[in-house]
Amino acid sequence: MKKILITGGAGFIGSHVVRRFVLHHPEYHIYNLDALTYAGNLENLRDVENAPNYTFVKGDIVDASFIDSLISENDFHGIIHLAAESHVDRSISDPMSFVMTNVVGTVNLLNAAKKAWAGDMAGRRFYHVSTDEVYGELHDPGTFFLETTKYDPRSPYSASKASSDHFVRAYHNTYKLPVVISNCSNNYGPNHFPEKLIPLMIHNILNNKPLPVYGKGENIRDWLFVEDHARAIDVIFHKGVNGDTYNIGGHNEWTNIDLVKLLCGLMDKKLGRAEGESAALITYVTDRAGHDLRYAIDATKLSEELGWKPSLQFEEGLERTVDWYLNNKEWLHNVTSGEYKGYYDSMYVNR
Ligand code: NAD
Ligand code: DAU
């Protein structure tokens, strides 16, 4: 049985990728490597944790000797790398942890794969999961990020991801490591840690707390349902061309304020509240420093070359997401109260 290492599999997107590979690919044994930081949560994977083709490994990608041993002792056929510090606001207050995990951690994995796969690269694959934020921000409507768009990272988070992308390409060029990279737009869906916009708003609406909209709420993001991202990763892992990059996006742009209002309307209906009750919680707050104005992905290459397309309309995906949070209040309570790990670590959830 071929072994696949997935890093960051206890996090938001990683847990959906792990579930997809465990359930759709019984021909693989999936190893989920995760340090279980504040963002990682094994409760995200309760439904597959006893699957015969699944193993969890607790460990830190910043620990070079541990990573070297893990990868040299296991004959991994592929590595799908998602482990990262992922929240832009945290990168503004603590850039160095982003350098350590996103840059040093990625290079540790590259070094270990290069060593373990030396002389036997055929059929192997190092898949690096990246973000559209490496391309900077867009201004003109009708312009989109292409795979050829010049890198222009503008936050410590996106600078760390851009740096890791450069290392991955450099290892392909210099050492012929078989790599593939994808750059995806904003994800949403179940198990999203409630420091990010959509789950934070759901959490605060439920608890009648202010809904903090940065600046004027005019910034634009392109939202994709997380299971569609996991399916894209599956397709690219199996069919992508070595050395290539694929953009993944939803063609689904929303200003933050319109999105928050849509969510408020949906939650009013679900919670039996009067129309406008949740929207009354909207509070405009100081803008994020260096806040990127607009992201929008052109995913034509992925759809034309590998046949992937998003499957869900946004309204349907958002309703599924809200329903998941309403049916999983215990998860929401556990991750925000710290009952899960015995500690509580979020600068953003309970403000
Ligand atoms: P997340 O913060 O929810 O999860 C990150 C996971 O990585 C957690 O389980 C955490 O415990 C683990 N981790 C963190 N540091 C680690 C370390 N040093 N060693 C081992 N594990 C560690 O992140 P996410 O939103 O699921 O994002 C996953 C990946 O996808 C990231 O690489 C991110 O840059 C990328 N991405 C995210 C989005 C998005 O909208 N969330 C969009 C495009 C790309
Ligand atoms: O584009 C992909 C990226 O999307 C990923 O690489 C990141 O890991 C992921 O966190 C996400 O980054 P954003 O900064 O776009 O996501 P966030 O949910 O933090 O914010 C979305 C938008 O909402 C952004 O314009 C900032 C705004 N916002 C966010 C929060 C948390 C608010 O207005 N209020 C808030 O409280």
Number of helices, where a helix is a run of at least 4 consecutive DSSP H or I residues: 11
Largest sheet: 7 strands, parallel
Morphology call: globular
| Rg of Cα set | 20 Å
Strand content: 15-25%
**CATH topology term of the domain at 2-188 and 224-251 and 293-312:** Rossmann fold
CATH class call of the domain at 2-188 and 224-251 and 293-312: Alpha Beta
* Unreliably modeled segments: 342-351
Q: For the largest beta sheet, what order do the strands appear in spatially?
A: 3-2-1-4-5-6-10
CATH-assigned homologous superfamily of the domain at 2-188 and 224-251 and 293-312: NAD(P)-binding Rossmann-like Domain
Could you spell the SSE succession in H and E letters? Answer: EHEEHEHHEHEEHEEHEEHEHHH
Decide which structural class fits the backbone: alpha/beta
- Which molecules other than protein and nucleic acid are bound? nicotinamide-adenine-dinucleotide, 2'deoxy-thymidine-5'-diphospho-alpha-D-glucose
The counted number of beta strands is 12
Q: In percent, how helical is the residue content?
A: 40-55%
Give the integer mean of the pLDDT values: 95
Distance between the termini: 48 Å
The CATH architecture of the domain at 2-188 and 224-251 and 293-312: 3-Layer(aba) Sandwich
